[in-house]
Amino acid sequence: MTVAEEAKGGGLEFHPMDQFLVKPLFGGDAVHWYTVTNVTLWMAIAVLAIAALMVLGTSGRAIVPNRVQSIAELFYGFVYKMVEDVTGKDGVKYFPYIMTLFVFIFFSNFLGLIPMSFTTTSHIAVTAVLAIAVFLTVTILGFVKNGAGFLSLFWVSAAPLALRPILAVIEIISYFVRPVSHSIRLAGNMMAGHAVLKVFAGFAAIAAISPVSVLAVVAIYGLEVLVSAIQAYVFTILTCVYLKDALHPHH
Amino acid sequence: MATETHGAEESASGLPQLDFSTFPNQIFWLVVTLIVIYLILSRVALPRIASVLAERQGAITNDIAAAEELKQKAAEAEAAYEKALADARAEAGRIAAEAKAEMQAEVDAAVQKADAEIAARTAEGEARIAEIRDGAATAVNQVAKDTAEAVAAALGVDVDRAALEAAVDERTKG
Asked: Minimum mean pLDDT among A153-162, B57-66, B159-168: which range?
């Protein structure tokens, strides 16, 4: 069930994709929908970490916050300001949903950077559900809030009349591509980074190039830390942008 | 169905991400996770952080207002102090002037008194000098008369006392 067979050669064994395997946690082979797997484990760890930061960390309710509470407030302020700036004042009531998305992706990305861990956000199944949820919510919300007026999103009134039908086609295509790019961007980034880490780590088996390999792993790891935060930010801000389109479809 | 079996086959050689047999599992746990996170955040964490931030904002606003008030009070106190200082200076000046005037009056009075006394003494002295002078003149007159009588007696001239006196008076007058 591994990809090891392909990568054999010169005594080197690469298993860069093994880290992404979904495995039952308590033995057995079959992965049913209810099976407790490593997905469950790492999502549960993410939930615990989030609860530790956002609930335990703020339990002091201090006017002058301690370090953990400062971080929790930083998260809150960061996402709140993002929602307010991008979506506008009327988008603030969707803030808890966007905050949920952000902290889940952020913590999953960073927990995935722990060696031997499992990165839930590297799976297209996870990111696709997130992206489709955003897409459906935004689309339904757009029609509920604006009725047929939501369709004016595709009718670029700033363009010359002759161009508008062509633009409308392009706009509609781009609209339906959104969930695809939205999900693949996140999963692809996480998967690629972790796979590259594993490949470089595999080279460490050769004594001659192992120092280079270790340095490369360190460098890529630093890059991945950056990517983890940026991808969580990108996913969230795009959600805000889509939400803004739903609330204010007029260009 | 067809895609699912295809995915399962592919997983043997391809990406674990495309192993569709694990999708229901991941999706199920993802939905559970998201609901739990949403409940934790919306029920506990976010209201708490919002209240803390609001409280802090309120405290900062209050503190700034209090600081403004204290600053105002300090300015008032400084003004009061300046005023008290100016008042005290004026009072001191006034007292000094008063004392000076009083002393001047006293000095003037003393000088006046001394002048009066000096004048009195002078007058007294002058009176006494005049008296002495008068006395001397009288004495000279008397001596002149007595001498004239004695001279006349010695010469053997019998002179009338009254005529002699008149003649002496005549001579010593001028």
From this structure: B159-168
